[in-house]
Amino acid sequence: MHPSIVPVILSGGIGTRLWPLSRVLRPKQLLPLTSDKSLLQETVLRTTGARFQSPLVLCNDEHRFMIAEQCRALGVAAGSIVLEPEGRNTAPAAVVAALLALERHNDALVLILPSDHTIGDLDAFYRVVDIATAAALEGALVTFGVVPHRPEIGYGYVRRGTALDGIDGCFRIAEFVEKPTVEAATDYVTSGDFYWNSGMFLLPAEAFLKEVERLKPEMLLLCRRAIENASTDLDFIRLAAEPFSAVEDVSIDYAIMEHTDKGAVVPASIGWSDVGSWSTLWEISPHDEDGNAISGDVITLDARNCYIRSEGTLVATIGTEDLVIVATEDAVLVARKDRDQDVKAIVAKVAAAGRSEHHVPLQVYRPWGWYHNIHRGPRFQVKEIVVKPGERLSAQMHHHRAEHWIVVSGTAEVTKDNQAFFITENQSTYIPHTTRHSLANPGKIPLKMIEVQSGAYLGEDDIVRYQDLYGRAPGDPEQR
Fold first, then answer.
1. What pLDDT is stored for residue 460 in this prediction?
2. Taking Cα atoms as reference points, which of 284, 311, 290, 332 lies closest to residue 121?
């Protein structure tokens, strides 16, 4: 009989170091950075099969529909998508996951996986999961220590102690070490006793919660209350805001692993990367004969060791070396590879300037489909709108803008005030401001439209929502 391993996928980050591709409303884990699937989807896919139960996904409110859609696109039903009222770090997330897993499986082991990691060797990954499972069944709280191949100062380290009795390939944890100096990191790699702290864990839920009760009783109490008072929102579990927001903001390492005598580490050579920067993405990407990692519409002349990515427009470079060049439709980043950790600082400057390029991508996903910002000028903007078959936008009204809808393909069911009618390809309709209206796709193919907005104020928060299929409140950030 297989133990009940419940994958727990943590998807709360916003990945500012991969700007301009990663945005607050579409962070790096939801992007296809290393394949045609997003990092989240790759994480979900490697936790399918006989070893695993359905995954739990913990995320924030703004990303819930995108995550649900990406899981559905894989044909993988998430066991639950749990919405955190605010990010409180990995320890509270692990506690909530362990409590929920025990409700379904009294022998649950929770496999904690960040959603933004890549693993190149899946067979090796499953081997270390099997080793960790054997240790967890004996009551160990197991972390995966990535075998380092260079002196890295951007990661914390785990030092192994004595071997765990009866389990080959597993060791007691001697200590956790903060991000070291270059000299210390070099010594760590040379010694062979230190591993990169991957942030991945396999925890026997019951034993883990007993340690939480011993070390952080208030955290356990508040997490229980957050679950007991949670609400169900469509396919989502919405944790109660008041108790969860009062939980200490702390990692599993600081809260539990550094203080327990049950900690163990499994050394892992699994082709792991946390995709934490553009230079990291350059390292794990295929290179041309000049050491360049190129994605999209790019032409180079005498380029060496660059990461060059275009999300649309042609990017041409001459005589570039050791640079990161990333072009999206609305922003371009050019940086030395050895300065890519400063991308976070430039994002802060973009935000401080009152701009939106750090927050909203041009293509914005909604539960009914998506819209793409094509062009914006004084008192007008143009969008492409795609509505999935059978889906409907909320009944709504705008105070400050009027809208012209032109159908490119499919059939639109339009309601204006009390009048309902259909428009099809090459037909259009006009929605005056202050008019109650709704839009639906009654057909079998996607509805594609061009929307031209005009008015004194065009913000997405100019909305009065009357009725919504997706449980969104009038002030919900998932507008429309």
1. 81
2. 284
